[in-house]
Design goal:
Number of strands: 6
Number of domains: 2
Helix content: 40-55%
Oligomer: single chain
């Protein structure tokens, strides 16, 4: 089984997926089960697949996984490839007590990317105890020292009813139209309201834009 799992895990086509999933379910040792499932998830993550197929693979991995490490790996792939199908799979994953918080966070991240205003998305979020919020960006500045540029409008364009704001690029410089202070680590300072309650946060350059929900 060791040799088979190693070979299948390095396979260069999706043909290995069914065999890896079967080994993840039936391999003689927990170590081999985990290795097989990791190989299966590599295919789901890295290969060009129809999105419904990728979502079903992640859902199958969640059902087969015996360790939280592989379950969380599946959730990471789902967030990387967001879709309604993936969101449904995250809702199912949230029924696993150990994954409730991680799956809920994954669902929020995917809803942000696929658009949280649709009836389907709202209904799915409600199943994991999450609801879209009214997020308002009051003021946002990006820079360092005495040099900050106003990025309020740029940030507000991407606020879609969730405390996690997904920018068009992982780089703040790219998302906000340039580097206001080259060669210096910058900060993004945000004043905002969520459901009418005011909050402030300061984020280090290129950190995920996650707004703490005011109490």
């Amino acid at each position: 089984q060791d040799t088979a799992i190693r070979m299948l895990g390095q396979w260069l086509t999706t043909d290995a997926a069914p065999a890896l999933l079967e080994l993840a379910r039936t391999a003689s040792s927990p170590q081999n089960q985990a290795r097989a499932l990791q190989g299966y998830l590599r295919i789901a993550r890295d290969f060009d697949l129809p999105e419904p197929q990728r979502a079903e693979m992640c859902a199958a991995a969640l059902r087969a996984a015996k360790r939280d490490e592989e379950r969380k790996l599946a959730l990471d792939i789902m967030v990387k490839h967001p879709s309604i199908d993936m969101l449904r799979a995250a809702v199912e994953a949230a029924k696993i007590p150990a994954l409730k918080d991680d799956a809920g966070a994954a669902a929020m991240a995917m809803a942000q990317k696929v658009g949280g205003d649709s009836v389907d998305v709202r209904a799915l979020l409600a199943q994991v105890g999450r609801e879209p919020m009214k997020v308002e960006i009051v003021k946002a500045e990006y820079g360092a020292g005495a040099t900050f540029k106003d990025v309020t409008a740029a940030l507000a364009r991407h606020a879609r009813g969730f405390p996690l704001i997904v920018l068009p690029s992982p780089s703040y410089n790219a998302s906000f139209g340039g580097d206001p202070v080259p060669g210096v680590v910058k900060q993004l300072k945000i004043k905002y309201r969520i459901d009418g309650k005011e909050g402030e946060v300061s984020l280090q350059e290129d950190a995920p834009v996650l707004l703490p929900v005011p109490k």
